[in-house]
Amino acid sequence: MLRPCWGAALAPRRGLRGLATAAEYLRGLVKVDYEALGSDRTALRDDEQPLAAVRTFLELLGSPHKELKAVCHVVGSKGKGSTGAILSSIMSRSGLRVGTYTSPHVVSLGERVLIDGEPREDDELLGYFRAHEPAVMEAQERTGWRLSFFEALTALSIKYFVEAGADLAVVEAGLGGARDATNVFDPPGLRVVVVTPLEREHTEVLGDTIEEIASAKVGVVKPGTPVVVAPQSSLALENLVAAEAERLGCGGVIRASRECHVAYSVSSEGARDYMFALGGAEAWEIRDCLVPQFVAENARTAIAAAAVLAPGFGVEIGQADVAGALRGSGLPGRFQVLGGGAAVLDGAHTQRSARVLVDSLLDLFPGRPVVFAVAMGADKRPGTFLGELARARPREVVCTAFEGSLKEGGLLRAAREAGLAASAEADFGKALEVAEARAAEVGAVVVATGSFRTVREYLLRRGAG
After folding, report:
1. Per the database record, which ranges form the Mur ligase C-terminal domain (predicted)?
2. pTM greater than 0.90
């Protein structure tokens, strides 16, 4: 059995006090970051030790997972972050104090740990991690198992939400479901499970078939817990998810495709009017909303989940709550629109995510020119990604690089092979200047994409203003 323990002694490392950020400190403390490796602990599919280690750590923290007043657990393949953010905002606007746990972060670790939509300050998290370092070390010593970065952050965030007095915690699962580090909640605290759209992904971890993946993701469902199922790619898949939830003894399946309906029309360039109708309630019209259609689809699921949660808190969900949540639904690096449409930041890095990005650009900015600034991780295949970007008919693709990325020359060759007008700049800052200058000439949208690191590099240089 593979046990990622580096040596018998699990004593605290020296030098952690000098680390600059909360993320660096936590990585130095646990020494295992499967996210950075592009892998996941659950690749050890026949071993339940990791989840047991998380539970041991939580016990040492005082079992905060049992103290949370209410939890919504969000699992799925696509749209978890957007759905969770919209749900959190709706419930916060209804008067609740809401903690949100999500991933990944783009610039600061605080983007993963939010109270009422506000990221926590890095210095605050750094101090919090330092205060709980002894519990991290004791958990590892007791189990003989090094907690991963995600596992440690999950447990510490749950503890943080309890101490912050959260009425509700919206917790997004990581890669998996049943064996994910977030699968520590039980009724009555676990109020609802939300299953966002599923697809074949991470087959080495979750299974080779969509049936296996559905079983892994839906495995967080506990007996008696209601399950909200997002619209899936097919009715057959939606039925499969519902059947798996019922097999686990859920407290009823709520299908967002039936409970919440959405329609939209074009109001102006870069904006849409949306109409939401929940069950037999009055329809809610939200005008001039600068969000793409896929976000509105995620909002359907969030609204259906809010309708499940609201009665338990004695609150009602209204148009103002939904409108405010939808308008403020942007997440860093997930079709993040800046400057009223001057720039778009998107962490897309696969052919599928590039397709969604281009569809959203064509939806919100029809007829408007596009200039891409692209940098991609060294393990990515740029050909199919850039081939999808070609559908946007960009005026230019400026290929660039960051530390550890594909070289800009390789991207340039792939872009030209895809029939794109392209140039290359080794320096990321210079590449942005070139893209912005070209966009200014033709009134184009600058789109920075290819990885979340690309988004990070943009934000570090330009900010989100």
Report:
1. 333-452
2. no
